[in-house]
């Protein structure tokens, strides 16, 4: 059985630390420097392959992205700019970038093989406790704190974007900076994108966003991790967004009977409708629930509802892929 400890993340980090570097886009084929291996995945963004550096023999993930449209190229270049700034152990790292042609670019990324956090914790051999939830949540907040210190908002914090570095340790990485934006304190930044279930009220209402917009999402992630319940999920995206804007939720389900008051207080200080009243990432890291070396409940949490949540998300993803494919074919 896998039972994570407070020490795992620091020990693994020292042993296998990723060395960040300054990335300059190269106008050539990445195959001149990397050997492309098997396909790891594909989606609307493009295709990802495992690749090996010809110089160091180290393995990475090569993400090929189609940029035939001017807007697509602009989006990828913004993502590259942001990832070049975000050099932190809790964030997916960019190692290289190639401008292959007018229609294709390639990003060489840190290879993460532990899978999505939620998929890992629902495995039968993983013991989910409040203590392990603290370890994961702390790391997410560390990544958010660093992003915000660089005046960058992620704006798409959700379980699918939290990956485990390995299948046995406890290190996590925040990924997918495709929707991330730079912000200037005092200036009004508004966005109208994100995942309804995890986006903050100010996103749905098209109001000013800020660092605590990400913190709302972390509050939702924590709520789901501890209970397996989604606090704002409706029968449709419209209903979900209406639930988000009302910001009405509770701890009444029996899933919270074994959860500490400190954990509930942590969530309560993030799921606040007024973004100015929410905890910042720094304040979250200083909250008693996330304090290191504190004795915590080792009671094993029931993962039945969390398993149902993960299965539902997989089904939704598959359904959206089928709909997208159908629309694509209709446009041929």
Automatic annotation (TrEMBL):
<dbReference type="InterPro" id="IPR008271">
    <property type="entry name" value="Ser/Thr_kinase_AS"/>
</dbReference>
<dbReference type="Pfam" id="PF00069">
    <property type="entry name" value="Pkinase"/>
</dbReference>
<comment type="similarity">
    <text>Belongs to the protein kinase superfamily.</text>
</comment>
<dbReference type="GO" id="GO:0005524">
    <property type="term" value="F:ATP binding"/>
</dbReference>
<feature type="binding site">
    <location>
        <position position="70"/>
    </location>
    <ligand>
        <name>ATP</name>
    </ligand>
</feature>
<keyword id="KW-0067">ATP-binding</keyword>
<dbReference type="GO" id="GO:0043065">
    <property type="term" value="P:positive regulation of apoptotic process"/>
</dbReference>
<protein>
    <submittedName>
        <fullName>Myosin light chain kinase: smooth muscle-like protein</fullName>
    </submittedName>
</protein>
<keyword id="KW-0808">Transferase</keyword>
<keyword id="KW-0723">Serine/threonine-protein kinase</keyword>
<dbReference type="GO" id="GO:0005634">
    <property type="term" value="C:nucleus"/>
</dbReference>
<dbReference type="GO" id="GO:0035556">
    <property type="term" value="P:intracellular signal transduction"/>
</dbReference>
<feature type="region of interest" description="Disordered">
    <location>
        <begin position="1"/>
        <end position="20"/>
    </location>
</feature>
<dbReference type="InterPro" id="IPR000719">
    <property type="entry name" value="Prot_kinase_dom"/>
</dbReference>
<feature type="domain" description="Protein kinase">
    <location>
        <begin position="34"/>
        <end position="290"/>
    </location>
</feature>
<keyword id="KW-0418">Kinase</keyword>
<keyword id="KW-0547">Nucleotide-binding</keyword>
<dbReference type="InterPro" id="IPR017441">
    <property type="entry name" value="Protein_kinase_ATP_BS"/>
</dbReference>
<dbReference type="GO" id="GO:0004674">
    <property type="term" value="F:protein serine/threonine kinase activity"/>
</dbReference>
<dbReference type="InterPro" id="IPR011009">
    <property type="entry name" value="Kinase-like_dom_sf"/>
</dbReference>
């Amino acid at each position: 059985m896998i039972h994570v400890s407070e020490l795992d993340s620091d020990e693994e980090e020292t042993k296998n630390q990723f060395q960040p570097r300054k990335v300059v886009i190269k106008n050539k084929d990445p195959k001149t420097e990397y050997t492309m291996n098997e396909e790891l995945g594909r989606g609307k963004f493009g295709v990802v392959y495992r690749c090996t550096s010809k110089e160091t023999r180290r393995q990475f993930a090569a993400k090929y992205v189609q940029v035939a449209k001017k807007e697509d190229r602009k989006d990828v270049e913004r993502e590259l700019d942001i990832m070049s700034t975000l050099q932190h152990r809790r964030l997916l790292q960019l190692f290289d970038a190639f401008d292959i042609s007018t229609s294709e670019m390639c990003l060489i990324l840190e290879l993460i093989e532990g899978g999505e956090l939620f998929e890992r914790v629902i495995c039968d051999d993983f013991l989910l406790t409040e203590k392990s939830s603290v370890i994961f949540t702390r790391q997410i907040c560390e990544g958010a704190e660093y992003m915000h210190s660089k005046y960058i908002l992620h704006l798409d914090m959700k379980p699918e974007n939290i990956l485990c570095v390995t299948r046995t340790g406890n290190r996590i990485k925040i990924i997918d900076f495709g929707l991330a934006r730079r912000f200037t304190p005092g200036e009004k930044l508004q966005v109208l994108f994100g995942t309804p279930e995890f986006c903050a009220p100010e996103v749905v209402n098209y109001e000013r966003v800020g660092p605590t917009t990400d913190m709302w999402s972390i509050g939702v992630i924590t709520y789901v991790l501890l209970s397996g319940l989604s606090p704002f999920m409706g029968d449709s995206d419209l209903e979900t967004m209406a639930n988000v804007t009302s910001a009405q939720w509770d701890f009444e389900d029996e899933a919270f009977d074994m959860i500490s008051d400190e954990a509930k207080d942590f969530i309560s200080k993030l799921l606040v409708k007024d973004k100015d009243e929410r905890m910042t990432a720094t304040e979250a890291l200083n909250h008693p629930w996330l304090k290191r070396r504190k004795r915590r409940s080792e009671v094993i949490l029931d993962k039945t509802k969390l398993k149902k949540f993960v299965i539902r998300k997989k089904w939704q993803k598959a359904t959206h892929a089928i709909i997208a494919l159908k629309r694509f074919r209709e446009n041929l």
